[in-house]
């Protein structure tokens, strides 16, 4: 029993990362961004665009849509879909609220969302990376390095959050997904 608990504890940081997004590539456009408008999400079952608040949709589907919409630069729709998530205080929801705020020029509000995401889950490597990228943009490279060290200390070496933040620190270029 102790071995199971120890194994689970050691794997938790990577599971937390997976809850964010372990995908290192930009989201591929789907019908959500190709066909649907105004925060609607493509429903594979009905093959139609449905309101993000549709009860049939689960939060993982909504989260994938948020990521895709944010990457496409449709921040208004991304915010609408985020508002449909069942737990507004969940770390990945707070992370993407922060991302959208930062990308729309409200870095100070974005930072508060990242801090809330990390309070909810200190092992949220994606929130640490996005927060660090925001710090780079605002000129706080030392603060970004603190987040990079936290990512590495929490088992995130050679993951997308670590690589993206290191790139931002080295080049000043941040990611859009």
Number of strands: 2
Q: How does the major sheet shape up? A: 2 strands, antiparallel
- Integer-rounded radius of gyration: 16 Å
Q: Which CATH-level-2 architecture?
A: Alpha Horseshoe
Low confidence ranges: 1-21
Tally the helices. 9
Number of domains: 1
Q: What's the CATH class label? A: Mainly Alpha
User: Which range best describes the helical content: under 10%, 10-25%, 25-40%, 40-55%, 55-70% or over 70%?
Assistant: 55-70%
Instruction: Give the N-to-C terminal Cα separation.
Output: 39 Å
Helix/strand order, N-terminal first: HHEEHHHHHHH
Structure description:
- There is one protein chain.
- With 177 residues, this protein is mainly alpha-helical.
- It has one domain (13-171): Tetratricopeptide repeat domain (Serine Threonine Protein Phosphatase 5, Tetratricopeptide repeat, Alpha Horseshoe), CATH 1.25.40.
- 62% of the residues lie in helices and 5% in strands.
- It is built from 9 helices and 2 strands; from the N terminus they run ααββααααααα.
- Strands 1-2 form a two-stranded antiparallel sheet.
- The chain is elongated.
- Mean pLDDT is 88; it is low at 1-21.
Care to give the gist of this entry?
Residues 1-18 form the signal peptide. This protein has helices spanning 2-20, 31-34, 59-71, 75-83, 91-103, 107-120, 125-137, 141-153, 160-171, and strands spanning 40-43, 48-51.
């Amino acid at each position: 029993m102790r071995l199971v608990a120890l194994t689970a504890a050691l794997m938790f940081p990577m599971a937390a990362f997976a809850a964010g997004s372990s995908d290192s590539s930009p989201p591929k456009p789907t019908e959500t961004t190709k066909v649907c408008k105004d925060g609607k999400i493509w429903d594979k079952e009905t093959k139609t665009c449905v309101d993000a608040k549709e009860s049939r949709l689960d939060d993982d589907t909504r989260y994938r849509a948020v990521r895709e919409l944010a990457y496409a630069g449709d921040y208004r729709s991304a915010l609408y879909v985020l508002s449909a998530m069942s737990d507004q205080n969940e770390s990945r929801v707070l992370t993407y609220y922060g991302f959208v705020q930062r990308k729309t020029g409200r870095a100070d509000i974005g930072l508060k969302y990242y801090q809330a995401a990390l309070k909810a889950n200190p092992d949220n490597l994606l929130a640490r990376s996005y927060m660090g990228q925001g710090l780079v943009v605002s000129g706080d490279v030392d603060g970004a390095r603190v987040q990079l060290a936290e990512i590495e200390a929490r088992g995130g070496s050679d993951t997308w959050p670590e690589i993206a933040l290191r790139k931002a620190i080295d080049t000043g270029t941040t990611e859009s997904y």
